[in-house]
Structure formats: structure tokens, C-alpha cells
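Bumping my old thread because nobody answered last time. Still need a sequence for this structure:
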């Protein structure tokens, strides 16, 4: 989940503020956001899997939480891909 949070932090706080200050085009966001989102999705899925393999008592609660995070990251990923090609 930390990678998902990092992706959001990069996309909505750091890149919109820092890149214009440094003189870098704002269109650099998707090139950073897409790989970070893909890595975040892989680790989110691995996190869910880890809870299920351990038969943890909170596996259902964590699955719901991870599913919400995965859905948000997928939405951001689709948005980044769309902005990359438009």
C-alpha cells in the first residue's frame, strides 16, 4: 500500500508542484506514474496473497481495503494512459 500512496503523492503533489518549478514539462507525470502504478499493483496483489496464505484472521478486512486501493490505482493508471495518448 505504501507504493500506491507513493504513486498518488507523486502524481498529485510532487509532480504538479516540483516539475514546473524546475522547468520540466508537466507532461512528464504519466511517464513516472505508469511504472509506479504497475509496481504498486503488483505489490498490492502480493500483500493480499500474503494475508490469505498466512490464513490471517483479518484477511477479509485487508482484502476489502486492498481491493479499494487497487481500484483507485487502476483508475489512476487508466487516467495516466489516457493522458499519455491524448
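Sorry it took so long. Here it is:
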Amino acid at each position: 500500500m505504501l507504493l500506491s500512496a507513493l504513486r498518488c503523492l507523486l502524481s498529485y503533489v510532487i509532480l504538479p508542484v516540483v516539475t514546473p518549478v524546475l522547468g520540466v514539462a508537466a507532461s512528464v507525470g504519466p511517464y513516472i506514474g505508469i511504472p509506479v502504478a504497475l509496481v504498486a499493483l503488483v505489490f498490492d496483489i502480493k500483500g493480499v496473497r500474503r494475508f490469505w496464505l498466512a490464513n490471517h484472521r483479518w484477511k477479509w478486512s485487508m482484502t476489502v481495503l486492498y481491493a479499494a486501493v487497487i481500484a483507485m490505482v487502476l483508475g489512476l493508471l487508466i487516467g495516466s494512459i489516457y493522458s499519455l495518448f491524448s
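The longest helix spans residues 59-85. Let me know if any region looks off to you.
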